[in-house]
């Protein structure tokens, strides 16, 4: 069936969230794909993001109707546009009535010396944490940016978009790819209850044990193993169990991994996530796929089942 | 339902077509997304393209089993990667058992003076015709390239891919966007019988009557109104009727047009296509969509119904 006409623009049912500038809007599967920008206090720079609002938003008869959302965290070198443009997720989100929130992957334009020397550190490589080491400590605050600034602003009950809030009474899930899969797994466990559902594509599952992760954790946090452990999904899942806490996602975490992924062996270590979840009693569906690589043709192939997983968990 | 595993690479059921180099392969919805390159005699330069082969290819038990295909011609500034990456077409093609063929939009690297001065002429703007004016006449041979070189090579019964041939006994459809919508409409009518089905997104429907078309036709063909008319879809459709020939697509041509498309009024003129088809008795389904623009969020929203149209026409 062909998508419905785009009934309304942003104006018809909501103002842009306070403090956000609309850079572009596109009719998409009966909903609207937005590109937004705002001045981030946490980052100290302008930050861009993309938001998809499904057609069900336009059907809401009152300004208090709000839709569930899934946050997607992208991988190294990506921007807010990558998943938005390449994954084909809006089709499924439109059908399920889910909003999609796509943040950028790091500060841009800070002018820190060396920020663009490597593709796996600095610009495009924020690792979704708050740096404590200089010269990164001023701007590289992606965790605080997401959890204390961006997501609260977008889901604000009166000044945000018509998106449900964070927390157990809200309806926001989180997923990500590679570095963003690390981000999703780690933020979900560092902020228990904030996200109702969790999934990842080819995540960096144990950053303390791979070159990408070690470089990032060392560069942003210094040589502090105690701090590193607080940003490693496997360590966080094990640590909850060691404290006698129940698993955070009793409905399960969904992870897809391609077996033709050239980063699988050295960087991703899904078997360590599998072991940690097993040890902690955290249900995990880890699907390994012959013939799929690390890119967006892989993500596009499986994004539908991820969004259905989030929708089911938030039902 | 999640896509099937990618059962095989190119090697398992077919060699790369003779003379083509495989630049990349990606598992995608149970099929394989290829990026290929070859030395084109018609263009006199290397040309790139993308081909998607659906999972049904792998199921073929004999080397003579061949799948239907749809050629997609892209618009100004695009490459073989644009639709491949942004449209989400592989999901539907995999389901329907269609191959997809995505050529580039012009010669690249010819080094003709002024070839990259404008985004709507020269590089990225081949208009799917054979230039007769200098300095374009040597390389800008996109029509002969597609019809006499690329498509015959890809569909060659023994040296090509396992794709059905051109012609009434074959199973190849054609579609395109903007300049590529012009290309699809015009090539289908200049080569009667070659393509079994035809559709377009926001085509340049009457290039003799809009600035993009006039610049291209004048630049590539010179000031020759007789030659221009042979590259204008409306003129070609009318001309068939004037000769007493029946419409080429009795099952209909499908065209989608967004009403928030900023090029609609000055460049696209779908109402002229509507009038020409009406006059010629050529069935046309022209759908106008509120809120959709000229970009790939529009194309992605409607690509499923285009592929289903081609599949139906080739059944």
How would you describe what is shown here?
Chain A is globular. The model of chain A is unreliable at about 10-15 (pLDDT under 50). The first copy, chain A, is of the alpha/beta class. The first copy, chain A, has twelve helices and nine strands. In chain A, α4 runs parallel beside α12 (about 295-315) and α9 (about 235-240) packs parallel to α11 (about 270-280). Chain A has a nine-stranded mixed β-sheet, sandwiched between helices. In chain A, a hairpin with a 4-residue loop joins β2 and β3.
What is this structure's SSE topology?
The structure is a homodimer of 315-residue chains.
Chain A lengths: L9 H4 L6 E9 L2 E10 L4 E9 L2 H4 L9 E5 L6 H7 L2 H8 L2 E5 L38 H13 L17 E6 L1 H12 L6 E5 L9 H11 L3 H5 L3 H10 L10 E6 L5 H5 L1 H11 L3 E6 L6 H18 L2
Parallel strand pairs in A: 4-5, 4-6, 6-7, 7-8, 8-9
Antiparallel strand pairs in A: 1-2, 2-3, 3-5
Helix pairs in contact in A: 4-12, 9-11
In short:
Chain A is of the alpha/beta class.
Largest interface, counted with CB-CB under 8 A?
A-B, 36 and 35 residues
Biggest sheet architecture of chain A: 9 strands, mixed
What value does the average pLDDT of chain A take? 93
Q: What does the oligomeric state look like here?
A: homodimer
Termini gap of chain A: 25 Å
- Encode the helix/strand succession of chain A as letters: HEEEHEHHEHEHEHHHEHHEH
Radius of gyration of chain A: 18 Å
The proportion of residues forming helix of chain A, as a percent range, comes to 25-40%
What class do helices, strands and sheet pairing of chain A give?
Answer: alpha/beta
Strand ordering within the main sheet of chain A = 1-2-3-5-4-6-7-8-9
Number of helices of chain A: 12
**Approximate shape of chain A:** globular
Q: What are the segments of chain A in which pLDDT stays under 50 over at least 5 consecutive residues?
A: 9-13
What is the percentage of strand-forming residues of chain A?
Answer: 15-25%
How many DSSP-defined strands of chain A?
9
């Amino acid at each position: 069936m062909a998508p419905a006409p785009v009934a309304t623009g942003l104006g018809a049912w909501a103002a842009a969230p306070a403090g956000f500038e609309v850079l572009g809007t596109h009719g998409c599967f009966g909903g609207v794909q937005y590109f937004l920008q705002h001045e981030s206090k946490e980052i100290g720079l302008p930050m861009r993001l993309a938001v998809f609002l499904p057609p069900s938003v336009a059907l809401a008869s009152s300004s208090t109707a709000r839709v569930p959302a899934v946050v997607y965290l992208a991988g190294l070198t990506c921007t807010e546009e990558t998943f938005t443009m390449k994954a084909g997720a809006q089709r499924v989100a439109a059908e399920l009535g889910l909003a999609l929130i796509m943040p950028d992957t790091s500060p841009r334009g800070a002018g820190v010396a060396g920020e663009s020397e490597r593709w796996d550190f600095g610009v495009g490589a924020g690792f979704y944490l708050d740096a404590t080491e200089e010269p990164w400590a001023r701007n590289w605050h992606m965790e605080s940016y997401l959890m204390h600034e961006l997501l609260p602003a977008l889901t604000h009950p009166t000044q945000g978009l018509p998106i449900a809030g964070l927390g157990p009474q809200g309806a926001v899930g989180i997923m990500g790819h590679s570095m963003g899969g690390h981000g999703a797994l780690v933020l979900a466990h560092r902020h228990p209850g904030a996200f109702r559902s969790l999934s990842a594509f080819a995540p960096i599952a144990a950053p303390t044990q791979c070159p990408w992760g070690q470089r990032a954790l060392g560069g942003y946090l210094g040589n502090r193993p105690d701090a590193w452990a607080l940003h490693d999904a496997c360590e966080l899942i094990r640590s909850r169990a060691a404290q006698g806490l129940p698993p955070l996602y009793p409905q399960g975490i969904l992870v897809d991994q391609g077996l033709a992924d050239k980063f699988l062996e050295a960087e991703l270590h899904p078997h360590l996530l599998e072991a940690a979840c097993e040890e902690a009693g955290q249900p995990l569906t880890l699907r390994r796929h012959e013939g799929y690589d690390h890119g967006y043709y892989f993500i596009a192939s499986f994004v539908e089942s991820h969004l259905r997983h989030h929708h089911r968990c938030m039902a």
